[in-house]
Amino acid sequence: AKMEGRGTCRSFEPGMDARLQERRQLESELVLGVKKEQFVLHYQPLHDAKTSQLTGFEALVRWSHPRLGLLPPSEFIQLAEETGVIDALGEWILRRACTDAAKWPLPVKVAVNLSPAQFKQQGLSLQVAAALAASELLPSRLELEITESVLLANNENTLNTLHGLRDLGISIAMDDFGTGYSSLSYLRSFPFNRIKIDRSFVSLMCESSESRAIVKAVAELGTTLGMTTTAEGVETEDQYRLVRENGCTDVQGWFFGRPMPASELHALFEQPEAL
Ligand code: C2E
Ligand code: CA
Ligand code: CA
Ligand code: CA
Predict the structure, then answer these.
(1) Bridge partners of 195?
(2) What is the rounded CA–CA span in Å between residue 219 and residue 274?
(3) Any idea where the EAL domain is (predicted)?
(4) What is the pLDDT averaged over residues 249-261?
(5) Residue 56: left (phi > 0), alpha (psi -120 to 50), or beta?
(6) What is the structure's pLDDT at 15?
C-alpha cells in the first residue's frame, strides 16, 4: 500500500510542476502580450426581440497568442485578474471597442465586459470618459456589462461607481443574471439599464416549464423596473420564439450570429433585416 501511495504521489508531482511552469510561462507571456497588444475583439450582434432589428454588438476579447493561436477568454481572463494585468488589458479593450464602434455606419451600441477587478479601480469613470473622448463615441452608444459578484460588497463605493458611470451618459447591464448570488435586492438598489438573462435558463426553455417561468418572471420584473431584458445564448428559432413570447426585449446568440472580427461586420450593417 505504501508503495502504491508513493507511486501515486510521484506520478502526481511532475504533473503539478508542469502545470505550474506552464502557468508561469503564460503569465509572463500575458504581460508581454498586453504590452504588444496581441489581443483582438470579436463582436456578437444584439437584436431587438420584437423586430429582430440589429441594436448593437457585444465586444468579446480573444488573445492572438504567438505560440498557441487564438485563445478564448476562458484561457486567460482569470489569470489576468489574478496577476493584475486586467487593468491594462481592460483599458485596451475599452478603448478599442469605442474606437471600433465610432467607425460603424449605424449608431448602434457597443457592449463591453468589465471584470470585477476593473470595477474596483479608483479612476474607472475617468478612464471611461477618456475612452469616449478619444474615440468621439457618443456616451449613449456605450454599455458596460458587470456581473453580480461586483455587487457582493454592496457598499457605498459600488453605488457611487455605478452612479458615476451613469452620469457619463452610458448604460449599465447586469450580466449572467441568475447564475451567481443573484439577489432581487440588487435590482432595486443599483441603477441598471438592462438585465442579461443567462444562457443556462434560455437553453432549457424548450424542455423545462420552470426555466420558462423564470425567464418570464425576470422579464416582467425588468419591465416593471424600467429595464430592458436580453436573453443570452439563443441558438434556435424555437428558443427565439419562447423568449419573445415570455417578454424578453432583446436577444443574443448563435441563431442571430456568432462573435466575429470587426472586419466582417459590414455584411450585417448592409442587411440589418436579414436573419
Ligand atoms: P459573457 O459575457 O456571458 O459572453 C457571452 C459568451 O457566450 C461568449 O463567450 C459568447 O461567445 C458565448 N455565446 C454567445 N452566444 C452563444 C450561443 O448561442 N451559444 C453558446 N453556447 N454560447 C454563446 P466567450 O467569448 O468565450 O466569452 C466568455 C466570457 O469571457 C464572457 O461571458 C465574459 O464573462 C468573459 N469575457 C469576454 N470578453 C471579455 C472582456 O473583454 N473583458 C472581460 N473582463 N471579460 C470578457
Ligand atoms: Ca457579457
Ligand atoms: Ca453573459
Ligand atoms: Ca457568461
Answers:
(1) 174, 229
(2) 26
(3) 23-273
(4) 98
(5) left
(6) 75
d(CA 224, CA 154): 23
Q: What is the pTM of this model?
A: 0.93
Residues 120-147, mean pLDDT to the nearest whole number: 96
Ligand 3 center from residue 245 Cα (angstroms): 21
pLDDT in tens, 67-82: 999 999 999 999 999 9
Residues framing ligand 1 (Cβ under 6 A): 44, 59-61, 72-74, 77, 93, 113, 115, 175-176, 199, 233-235, 253-254, 259
Nearest CA to ligand 1 atom 4: 60
Q: Extract the C-alpha cell encoding 132.
A: 469616449
Looking at the DSSP assignment, which residues form a beta bridge with residue 143? Answer: 111, 171
Distance CA 202, CA 239 (A): 7
Instruction: Give the CB-side neighbour count of residue 216, counting CA atoms within 13 A.
Output: 11
Q: Residue 118 CA: which ligand 1 atom is closest? A: 44
Environment class of residue 201 by beta-carbon count within 10 Å: exposed (0-12), middle (13-18) or buried (19+)? buried
Tell me the CA–centroid distance for residue 96 and ligand 1, in Å: 17
For the cut 50, the answer to whether the pLDDT of residue 274 exceeds it is no
Per the structure block, which three cell numbers stand in for 256? Answer: 442571430
Identify any residues that bridge with 44 across adjacent strands, giving them in sequence order: 58
Residue 204 CA neighbour count, 13 Å, CB half = 12
Residue 146 C-beta-side C-alpha neighbours within 13 Å: 24
Give, for 119, the enclosing helix (H) or strand (E): helix 116-119
pLDDT tens profile 201-251 = 999 999 999 999 999 999 999 999 999 999 999 999 999 999 999 999 999
Cell of 228: 430592458
